[in-house]
Structure formats: C-alpha cells, structure tokens
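Researcher: Please predict.
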Amino acid sequence: MTGNWAALFFMVSGIMLYGGAAWSEEGVIFSDDFESGSLELWDADSVVNDPNRLRLTSDPEHVFRGKYAVEIIARVGKGTGGKLNKWFLPGYDRVYARWYCKFAEDFDQGNHMHFCHLLANRHDDKWSAFGKAGVKPGGDDFFTAGLEPWRDWGKNPAPGEMMFYSYHLDMPIDSKMGKYWGEMFRPSPRFIPERGRWYCMEMMVKANTPGKADGEQAFWIDGDLKGRFNGIRWRDAEELKINDFWLMLYVHNSSRINRVWFDEVVIDDEYIGPVTE
C-alpha cells in the first residue's frame, strides 16, 4: 500500500476503528502521522537536522497513508542510523506503541542492529535510560525493551526474525565480556518480515508489581499476536514508569546504505491495532 491508496477508517465522536476494534483518540498518549510536514512533535535526542540520516519523504512509493512518512537511513560505517525520541513523563505502568514500517528491498544490516524501543526513565531524570548498553538495571533507575529484527549470524534472511531485546533485573551476564547486554526473547514460531512491504508493528510493555515477577512484553504484526513473554521483573520501585519511545534504525556495522520508512505512529495505554483498510 502506498500514499496513492486511501485507507478507510471510521470516526464517530473521537472513536476510530482499528483492526476491527474501537480505539479512542481521547486516551492517546502521543500520535504522529507526519501529515504536518514537520517533526516538531518529537523531543530532544531526535535526529531532525541531518537529512543524511533522517528526513520526511513525500515519495508515494514510501508513504503508507497520506502525503508524508519518515525515512531513516543507516549509512556505510559503524554505529550509523537515526532516531526520533518522544518522552511522556512521568509515565505509565503499561504502554502500547504502534507504527507502520517498510524495509528497503535491499535492506541487510549484517548481524547487529537496534530498532524501536520503549524505555523507563526516572521521573526526576528523563535521561536515566540513555547510554546504558552493557549495564544491568538497578531496579529504580531504568529498564528497556526493543522490538528488533535478528539475523542470528546469517541463519535468518534479512532483515531477520522479530524478537525482543530487553534490559531487566534478571537478565544474564555475558560471561566472556563481563557485560549485561540486552536479553533476547525469541518467540516460536519465528516471524521474518519481507523487505519492500509495509507492516503494522505494535509492541506492549507492562511493568511488574515491585517485589513480584509479573511484568510482560508482547508484540503484534498486522494485528496478529506473534510473541508474548510473562514473568519479567522490570523494576523494584513503583515510581519507575514507562515514559519514552524511540522510533529508530541503528546498525552496528553497516556495509551498505540501509533504509526503513515509518508512518502512522501511535502510543497509548490500551491496544491500538492496525488501520482498517
């Protein structure tokens, strides 16, 4: 589907139909369909001034719906890509994030990359979850969950199987490096998106009750539940809430130019689902 097609939806008194179910705009935390033609709704730490890494596009081939979408580009090199960041402080105990995305037909990140993340920062330090690669959460400082494609060292075709890459209290240590890299949560059966095709992706993170392992994370592709993981200890402090979202493409070592297009971003505390076509 491109911008030349009109996705059909119904709106009555602020209620839209997404995926056959009613979803209310009234309770939405954040949304951006990029139809304003700007990125002013996004916050600090967003790459909005470098068109070589992130830019709006009006090319109908790369727009899901409407006139505009966002293109994020990972150039050749190490640690390359771009990000849009949105805080919603002080935060929530359960958050859903929904976006549409399309990987370029020649997309191939090699082995390692990062994609879209939900994060919990301290209410008095909105940066507390930033720069924590290799660090285990302390229970009151941060936790994160990223929905990402994983090549599994070439065993999966590009862009790879969708899985969670998460930082939580019970995550294992890398015995070789002595670091706490994000733990991979891989559902079965695996789901590998096709390149050159639009997908509706949605992820949910539910914080645990402090002292209990009742946290969750789940994701849906085109409205179908593909993975759900329970029994997670994200935090020890109840005031630590989910309050940040990254719309991102980050490739550790990109041997080619890699592109992903994004559209129709919504963040809510209830399930959202895909736009009903």
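Model: The CA atoms of residues 16 and 23 lie 5 Å apart.
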